[in-house]
Design goal:
The chain is α/β, with parallel strands linked by helices. About 25% of the residues lie in helices and about 30% in strands. A hairpin with a 4-residue loop joins strand 8 and strand 9. Helix 7 packs parallel to helix 8.
Length: about 270
C-alpha cells in the first residue's frame, strides 16, 4: 500500500557498539506541477498520493477556486504522473487572469505554505467568521494525537512524514493524509472534502502533527473548521488569526494535557 510513498536506501548505521551498512527506507518527495487550463501555475514539492485532492485543496486555499462547482475537471497528464491539469470555470479563469500579477510562479517546497505571495496584504483572505455553538470534551481532545498516529502508515516506516486528520465532534477520525509538508497534508484533507462538496466543515476538528503555523489556521478558516489542534506549538500569527476568525486553537496536545490559545468556550468544562 505504501510502496510508492517510500524509497529504499542504504545507510551507515552508527551506534556506540559498531558502524554497519544496512537497508532502510525514506519518505518519497517529488515535484507536482499544477496547471490551470493547460498553463503552468505552481510546482508543489509533495509526497505522491491524493494528488487530485492536493491540487483541489491547494487551489481552494489560493482562492483560485471557491467551491467544487468551479472545477470542470482534474486530470493527470498523459505523459507525466507528476503533472495535474485543472480545468476551471470561465468566470474563475477570468478572475485569475485579472489578478495574474498578484502571485509569483515559484516552487512550493515541502515546508512552504504561502511562498507564492508577493505582498503582505495578499496573505489576508476573506471568509465568514467560523461560528459553531458546540463544545468538545478534554477527553476527546486527549485522544486525537494517538488516533492520528495510528493511521500514519508511512510515518511508521520512515519517521519522515507529517499528517493531518479530520475528526468529528466525538473524536472519530474520518479523513487523514500524510505528506512531507504539513500544509500539503491539510490541503489533501480539505481538497477531498471540497471534491465531495462537504464544505464548510462546521462540525469537524482538524488535528495536525508538528506545529501550527499561520497558513494551516488560514486553511482551516477557509474550510469553516471551528477547532484546530496540534501536538506542538502554534506561532503568534496563528494565534492571532484563530482569535480573529473564531477558531478554537489547541497546542501541545499530549494525552490529557494541552493548551487552549483562543476561544476556550468550546472546551466543555
Amino acid at each position: 500500500m505504501t510502496a510508492s510513498l517510500v524509497r529504499p536506501v542504504r545507510v551507515l548505521h552508527v551506534s556506540p557498539e559498531a558502524a554497519a551498512s544496512r537497508p532502510d527506507v525514506v519518505a518519497t518527495e517529488e515535484p507536482m506541477e499544477v496547471r490551470i487550463n493547460g498553463e503552468p501555475f505552481a510546482v508543489i514539492m509533495r509526497t505522491p498520493g491524493a494528488d487530485r485532492e492536493l491540487a483541489a485543496g491547494f487551489l481552494f486555499a489560493e482562492r483560485v477556486i471557491l467551491s467544487a462547482a468551479d472545477i470542470v475537471s482534474i486530470e493527470r497528464d498523459a505523459e507525466s504522473r507528476n503533472v495535474m491539469d485543472v480545468r476551471i470555470a470561465d468566470a474563475r479563469a477570468r478572475d485569475l487572469a485579472a489578478r495574474g500579477d498578484a502571485r509569483r510562479r515559484v516552487v512550493m517546497n515541502s515546508s512552504c505554505g504561502l511562498c507564492g505571495r508577493v505582498t503582505i496584504e495578499s496573505l489576508r483572505v476573506e471568509a465568514p467568521d467560523v461560528v459553531a455553538d458546540w463544545n468538545v470534551s478534554a477527553a476527546v481532545i486527549g485522544g486525537l494525537a494517538e488516533a492520528l498516529r495510528g493511521g500514519q502508515a508511512v510515518f511508521k516506516e520512515t519517521g519522515g512524514l507529517h499528517a493531518a486528520g479530520l475528526f468529528n465532534r466525538s473524536g472519530v477520525l474520518e479523513v487523514m493524509a500524510e505528506d512531507v509538508g504539513r500544509h500539503n497534508a491539510v490541503d489533501k484533507v480539505v481538497g477531498r472534502m471540497l471534491l465531495e462538496e462537504r464544505l464548510p466543515l462546521g462540525e469537524s476538528i482538524l488535528f495536525v502533527s508538528g506545529r501550527t503555523s499561520y497558513e494551516i489556521v488560514q486553511k482551516a478558516f477557509l474550510a469553516g473548521i471551528p477547532v484546530v489542534g496540534a501536538v506542538s506549538a502554534p506561532s503568534s500569527l496563528a494565534v492571532e488569526l484563530a482569535e480573529e476568525a473564531g477558531i478554537t486553537l489547541l497546542g501541545f496536545v499530549r494525552g490529557s494535557a494541552f493548551n487552549v490559545y483562543s476561544h476556550a468556550h468550546r472546551l466543555a468544562r
